[in-house]
Amino acid sequence: MIDSHTHLDSCEPPNAELVAAAAREGVARILTVGMDAATNRSALQAAEDFPQVLTAVGRHPNHAEGFDDADLADLHALAAHPRCAAIGETGLDYFRDYAPRADQERAFHAQIELARATGKPLVIHTRAAEDDTVSTLKERAQGLEVVMHCFSMPDRLDECVAEGWWISFAGNVTYPKATDLADAAERVPDERLLVETDAPYLTPQPVRKERNQPAYVTHTARFVAERRGVAYEDLERLVDANAATLFGW
Asked: How many CB atoms lie under 10 A from the CB of residue 235?
């Protein structure tokens, strides 16, 4: 199993204990994600420390305040690291509005172009900003590999699939009230399906009281397999192959 997206926060980069726990559950590879200058570097350090780990570098919309040419130049330099496999998270977040929307847009547009320049996939965060996120991607991200991280737009699934974007489900797809997400997980074409943790948040239902970690992606995968009416082993092979194709593993 590949944990195709482990969200890195400033207090918990992947460490030996988490990597080992993941390995015991059959999670052989982890993509960890930076959100700003500091966590991008922590993520790359983890990728240097553990051969199982690759990194996405980016500027999360909640950390986009003041994004400028110097920030973009820093991302360009980090994206050249051999352990960097993707760009992001980037996108728009109107729910928190931690950063001015103009700054979020500037960072989003710049990272789309960085993904194009580097030929690396683009990992998207969107919250309460679906219309603007989708329209921006349609206008600016044609020809890129786009990952809709922690997929949250079940009513727009067909639209996203038609654009050729990857659909990645996090632990919240397992929640009893998330029936619309579970229905969407049934309908994603095999060739566009991913699962992820979004650790340390959105812990899957069977371990919901615990802090999320890469090992727990197997709970999400088992749930998605059941909803799709396939054996876990078949779902595991499918998402492993998809993540390997997407991130170059």
From this structure: 22
